[in-house]
Amino acid sequence: MPDRPASPDEPAAPERPSTPVTPTPAHADAVLSALADYRSAEVEMRRRTRDSMRMGATDLQALRFLLKAQQEGRIVSGRTLADHLGMTSASVTAMLDRLTASGHVTRLPHPSDRRSLQVVATPGSDEEVRHTLGQMHRSMLSAAVGLSQQQSRAITLFLERLTAAADAS
Question: What is the pTM for the complete model shown?
Answer without folding.
Answer: 0.65
